[in-house]
Amino acid sequence: MSDNILVTRSSMPSLDEYIEEIRPIWESHWLTNMGVKHKQLQAELEEYLGVPHVALYTNGHLALENAIAALNLPEGGEVITTPFTFASTTHAIVRNGLVPVFCDVNDRDYTMDVTKIEDLITDRTVAIVPVHVYGNICDVEEIDRIAKKYGLKVIYDAAHAFAVKYKGASTACFGDASMFSFHATKVFNTIEGGAVCFKDDSWVQLLNDQKNFGIHGPESVCFVGGNAKMNEFQAAMGICNLRHLDEEIAKRKKVVERYRERLSGVEGIKLSAIQENVESNYAYFPVVFDGYKYTRNEIYEMLQEQGITARKYFYPLTNSFECYRNYPTAGTEKTPVAQHLALRVLTLPLYADLSLDDVDRTCDVILGQKD
Ligand code: T4K
């Protein structure tokens, strides 16, 4: 049993395996700009996810920002999204000159409450950016129906949902595009990294140019692009980690099962619903303390005292951020379910190598069974 328990811990290959993978990079001196490892990882991910196209990025945030930019939406257009997420989702919308309109979430799996979307649509609405929060899958069928009815674009923030399947299909298949984060804290990591998955063939060149300064050929710069390329060392880490991913997810599953065994049915403790037709990646284990003998903040402190780190993902809501104070669409009162959750949720330690003893130690503190 370890002393301190972190909220998560990066999955890594053995050092020998990584060295073997980076040796050709070292020997060739080709470090970035869509080199051999970049192309290899891209092809492996297209096959793993069963999608026609994957574009790789240096991080998930730039992947999302670029995917939204590729839609070429009119400045000031409204984008329906959720505030129960990491800062990145809302920032990616705003940094594209668009206005976030916050939809509440449901209290079963914490994804966008699809019954509230249509009420938020105006003649300025241009897109929906839902979040598969904690790896829980949004109601993709209803979102698709609404998007078609009103002619809206859909980009999924699937940062947490890599390797999740719905009805046998990868989460990468839904909407106009899906973004994954491959950050060190994610189920699958490339140190920092991200991807956009899409079906439209015309986006292949567009996304390539966009993440490489808008350079279209040796003497042609066709638009104002940026720099968001994944480098060769990141790609090599991804190639190694992908080999072990299924095994890592199986280990995470055991951790989650133990948490559920210990915490299910306890009065005042609510666990995220197990979704039908979904193969989970066991990315996060959120617990909502609602009417429990201790408050969320008390539990957080009690765990800290025992050297156990939990996280208040996602508190505060993005619609309460200082930088959005002047937006008429901001304000937590417009998303009461999300606010209720944000004040009560803790995500517990979860990673592939977390021992079941450490899960028990965490649960003992929560249940007040620590002497
Ligand atoms: N959309 C959503 C819904 C997201 O959640 C995120 C990112 C994004 C978009 C954007 O994707 P990226 O641009 O990040 O690819 C973390 C991550 O930095 C962030 O990726 C993630 N979501 C967010 C939910 O959490 P922090 O600040 O909470 O992480 P930090 O540094 O406190 O680390 C937490 C624990 O992880 C540490 O206690 C130990 C472990 N750790 C951390 C690092 C950095 C490792 O084991 N290895 C490491 O290298 O933000």
Topology:
Elements: H1 15-28, H2 36-49, E1 53-57, H3 60-70, E2 78-81, H4 87-94, E3 99-102, H5 117-120, E4 125-129, H6 140-150, E5 153-157, E6 165-166, E7 169-170, E8 177-181, E9 194-198, H7 203-210, E10 215-217, E11 220-221, H8 232-263, E12 269-271, E13 278-279, E14 286-289, H9 296-305, H10 336-342, E15 345-347, H11 356-366
Parallel strand pairs: 2-3, 2-4, 4-5, 5-8
Antiparallel strand pairs: 1-9, 6-7, 6-13, 8-9, 10-11, 12-14, 14-15
Write out key terms for the chains shown.
EC 2.6.1.-; 3-stranded antiparallel beta sheet; Aspartate Aminotransferase, domain 2; transaminase activity; DegT/StrS_aminotransferase; DegT/DnrJ/EryC1/StrS family aminotransferase; Aspartate Aminotransferase, domain 1; 7-stranded mixed beta sheet; alpha/beta; pyridoxal phosphate; 35% helix; binds ligand T4K; 371 residues
